């Protein structure tokens, strides 16, 4: 087991002791969401501005089932993952043949479309008011209404997601996606069906978003309209970029920084988004690889200092 | 030397980080003292209504300060959280304030959708929640023992607006409605049409626009095409202001009267040029010339503090807080369920006149105001926008009441 994995495990165990359980739970949910985006952004080089489409769609469908039929938790999660994947396949199908700005705008536009469907379809989604009253049915005798129990459940699912994602990015598929990121023309020339692989990345990313969406709806007991809004898509993008989009662990760090910091600072300072803005500018100007790059640079700088000091002595 | 500096910097960084962690994080460690009564104002400091958050905060603070930040001999600790006009963030922050800071009494937020989410938290966490706004559901379909509604029922508003307007303009029978397309808009629209029947009104059009619409020209052309005697808007805030401007620019007003059925009063009127306000009729939950002793006192001290008259937002925050404190007084207890019982059926003369809380629905039964805007020549000062021409307090008739059983604790 690598050091990074140990660090993640330690964080999963220590986090609920440091912050409130609900907040800790949300950090891991957001991290799952970020993992899905990072497969697109960091590994395939696709900037999707519509991730909340899959997150929100899954949250609504699973939320509806949980609310009206009190479905089994695993069934709800399964349905959410499928909804996330299918909606991503739909959106991906329309988007992957375009690139650059057109691709981004399409993901954004389709996100808006889904948003307005949710907004208008009030009998199901509750529209502006959201869909409240989503329960957390017990599983195998464990009462998930206990925040700690739910945290453990989410953290375990997060670790599982992280492991699966690692398997994916290290598999041949992952390498193909990275090849597409580096140069899609060359990947095509080598013989890979680039749009198909992009679509596959979309579907996998959508499945992760879907999982996060269901967990989110169960955490708060409500699917708010903004869960499918473009600001939410922006948030996960933002968190992933701050954490480091090129890196495997970037979204986790990003999720932690984004949620924990915004929660803590918003209590002290009303105009806290300003701080996030400054952080974003710094990342874009100096650390394109986000926190992960900043950390790596700090270490290499230290190593060099040490080496130089060694030579001097 | 440089080495030392670097170490110092690192140390400082570590100390700073530790300080930040201690100060900002770990809210679970900070517990409220047992004797304090912790009240939470969940206001929109960022996001869609970030301009309203600070003035809501003012209103609540003023009501608490009047009592010397004390209730029944106990100190009140007033905390705020940013609702960001997002249901998810609000839910999370209210829960945090309840668990971490021991907040037991929650007032706010500003948007109806977010309020319903907060109301769910209140129900789950068993804390008292007071809200003022357009949604019918708090005291209707989603009523429960812990949430209260301060704003008048949409029915009360519709009845006041239509009855008073028709009294002044008995021949204006053709109405065109411009409605914000969400729960609040629909319920006011429904009741305006209901009340309209009794006056034999003809609704020549009812156009719905999305929340946050900024381009009203196509709605205005449609309205003009219907040749109405009056245009009535059922929208709020910047939507209402933008629409009123466009309707004026198109030349519909001031020839035709324009009704803003559910306005925040001063906050919207100040954004309209005097010519636009010429034939304008405004319904509101509060106007600063309200003739009650409490309102007079409030307006005086608000003006002294902030240099302008209060609109609906600060008045609502102030009014809700006062009602809540009356609830404490009546219950003679600081326990949530006692205060809920204290508020149920309470009857006071307060900010907007005679106010009563319906125990069956948790709706505050209270007057709604209808104003007529003044021409520029009649304005005594730059903030003298309108005269209150009527108030109405007809409660929601039983056949419309959606809160069948408010339930138990």
Provide a compact summary of the structure.
Chain A is mostly helical and 313 residues long.
Average predicted confidence as pLDDT of chain B: 88
CATH superfamily of the largest domain in chain B: Response regulator
> Counting H and I runs of at least 4 residues, what is the number of helices of chain B?
12
Report how far apart the termini of chain A are. 37 Å
Give the integer mean of the pLDDT values of chain A. 87
Can you describe this structure?
The complex is a heterodimer of chains A (313) and B (409). Chain A has 14 helices and 2 strands, in the order H-H-H-H-H-H-E-H-H-H-H-E-H-H-H-H. By secondary structure, chain A is mainly α. Chain A has one domain (3-271). In chain A, strands 1-2 form a two-stranded antiparallel ribbon. The model of chain A has no long low-confidence stretch (mean pLDDT 87). By secondary structure, chain B is an alpha/beta fold. Chain B has 12 helices and 16 strands. In chain B, the strands form 3 sheets. Chain B has a 7-stranded mixed beta sheet, sandwiched between helices. Chain B has a 6-stranded mixed beta sheet with strand order 2-3-1-4-5-6, sandwiched between helices. A 3-stranded antiparallel beta sheet of chain B has the order 12-13-14. In chain B, helix 3 (87-101) runs parallel beside helix 4 (112-125), helix 5 (154-168) crosses helix 6 and helix 11 packs across helix 12. The longest helix of chain B has 23 residues, at 2-24. Residues 18-33 of chain B have low confidence and may be disordered. Classes of the chains: A mainly alpha (313), B alpha/beta (409).
What descriptors fit this protein?
A: 313 residues; mainly alpha; two-stranded antiparallel ribbon; 14 helices; B: 409 residues; alpha/beta; Rossmann fold; 16 strands; globular
